[in-house]
Design brief:
The protein is elongated. It folds into 2 domains: 1-49, Orthogonal Bundle (Arc Repressor Mutant, subunit A), CATH 1.10.10.60; 67-189, Orthogonal Bundle (Tetracycline Repressor, domain 2). It is 73% helix and 0% strand. The protein is mostly helical. It is built from 10 helices and no strands.
Amino acid sequence: MARHRDYTKIEQIFESTLKLVLEKGFAGLKMAEVAKEANLATGTVYIYFKDKDDLINQLYLFLKRRKTILFLQGIDQKEDFDLVLKKIWFAYFEVTMQHVNESAFLEQYYRSPFLKSNVKEESKQILKPIYDLLERGVKEGKLHSVNVEILLSQIVGPIHEMIRAYHDGAVEINAETMNQLYQLVMRGIKA
């Protein structure tokens, strides 16, 4: 009989892993420290994750899914393209601001040697609604006809940079600055 998965324990492990990775980096992460931080036995962590790589990859996918669900919440893809893109852009900005640590982990992981091709593919599937929307924009002649990865980088990259500047004290984030950034981004990607 298969063992019952205790999702409370899995979330404890994920929260502890996130905290430790942000403090020590991926290389410094030890399964025993994750267990200690989560107030669990080390063996318990191994029940759910075969090793550190598996844990980090599963945490990445968990956070990616959760963030995507949050910023797509209430979005109707059948609405006017421009309206949908605007709603998603502002929702992504808000979710990224509210979940700075998770966003930092996602960015750090994506540039790490822990990124596996199967995880990269699964990540693309999580973002499929976004890719579909961008492809729709290209087909409708509303966005530049370029690879959707380029469009996506031009949409989310400025958000991450603005949030970094905010945390460095270089810029204030308010409705006006968000609208200014949105207008700049749209000028860059609109056909």
